[in-house]
Design goal:
The protein is of the alpha+beta class. Strands 2-1-3-4-5 form a five-stranded parallel sheet, sandwiched between helices. β3, α3 and β4 form a beta-alpha-beta unit. One of its GO terms (biological process) is phosphorelay signal transduction system.
Amino acid sequence: MVYSVLFIDDDPEICSIAKAFLEKTGSFKVTTSESVKNSQQLLKKTHFDAIISDYAMPGSDGLAFLRSVRCKGNRIPFVILTGKGKEQIIIDALNSGADLYFEKSDTPKDLFHQISEKLVPLIKSKQAEVIFHEIFTQSPIAIEIYNSEGKLLQVNNACLDLFGIESQTEIFLFDLFQDPNIPKEVLKRLKNGEKIEYTRSFDFDLVKKKKLYNTSKTGEMYIKVQITPLDHSDINITGGYLVQIQDLTEQTISECALKTSEEKYRSIFSNNHSVMLIIDPNNGQIMDANPAACEYYGYTREELIQLKVTSINCLSEEDIFNEMDKARKEERNFFYFRHRLASGEIREVEVHSGPIKIENKQLLYSIIHDITDKKRVEEALVTANKKLNMLSSITRHDILNVLTALTGYLEFAGTETSIEDARIFIQKAQVAARSIRHHIEFTRDYQDLGSKEPLWHDIRAIVKSSAALINTKQVKIEYDTESRLLVLADPLLLKVIYNLMENAIRHGQTVTRISSYWEKKSDGYVDWIIEDDGIGIPLSLKKSIFSREVGKNTGLGLFLAREILAITGITIQEVGGEGEGARFLMKIPDGKYRIE
């Protein structure tokens, strides 16, 4: 480190010698001046770390220059050079603020060697003193300095403001160890030389009661106190205590209010019976979940907060983030979604969602209500209306038409004179009567469709039960045995599979094998296939086999099968090749199956 020094002497030769000797040490860069007036101009334009000035100079001497510098509050290290036997000048210089003095009687080499040895520590000390002074006076933290006996020597303005004290004289020599606002155990540790830090309330009324000092403040404040014993091992420090105090009143009040608010929020959140989630809209992370959410989704809280909302919401990730953005911007606060439970079951939900700030972070709250049963009721109403229309159509149209034919046949039979012709009309009337019976039985089956809650069916058990109801001695029944597929469907699912197998045996002619197997597809659906090795279904009949045909053995059966499957969103179609056997493909949507 090279320090900048201003050297002043009216003798140019001495200035030259001083510059040469001091710069040779490598610690100084010296600027010389031959008058006080010139030096004052240099001080205005240039920063110096120290000043060395001769006392005796024409015009204005070094002592006058020293006083003018100190008068302006400049604390720069100042060294006075005097002649031998000038004791009074030395005393005046020290009283005026000089830091060092040297007699010029010594040889130049010895003189400047002594100056260089003492000037560097002086500059460092002064710089540290200036830094400390700036920190002490400008710090917003209250600072107190006590001597080794615990008597207060100095405080900064922040301390006076904090404690409502007008002047330092009010508290000069205040005893640190007699302060009632300092806990006794703290004082004990302090006397043992420990560094202390604590936070507690400070009682101004106690100060007034004990008449410790005058203060304009009342009541309590919350403070953080740090007391540092000053090191006795340093010969420049006589010992004492440095006390730093921060006012935490507003912070403490805010923290208490926040804590109270958070406790209220936590109580409402945790004890609410509604399902609640806190979600980060930036990445979809579930930040918190109340006990009702854990019970509903079938996860522990620890498991839920490891998931993202994309793990439970059945929408695409892009659509989910678009919806969260609407909630964050308060463009919408009400949504309909399909949520996946831990079991894999899909539930219909309505979600109330909006922005909430927690710990200065913008999040989303979501209150979830399960509306699956409500949706089923709505769907049941639609189905009921459809059934009423269908039954009405059957009653008015089909049965009346057949009844008209039946009446006609009976009238013809009654007027015929030929017994053989009458018998033919009676046989036709019997066929018509059986047709009416068939339609009435259909209306009975159809009115039961969807009347009961869908159930989870093990398809392996369904296939085995259906096979047991049919004479399949000549037909081999095959089904998957490696994994277990459960399907959510109407309780009449058994009738659907029975109908498919019974049709295969009745109409397949060459059937020796009926197979049931399934496969999960990339689009989330499961394909469940039931096929046989019979003659298959002609291409022209593939669509009509699911129509409500009158007079066909299987028409109403397959029509009902399709209606039963549709209750839970399952579709069915025949995809086999003619001559290669019938092949019925049932597509089961996500949420309507479980694989175990």
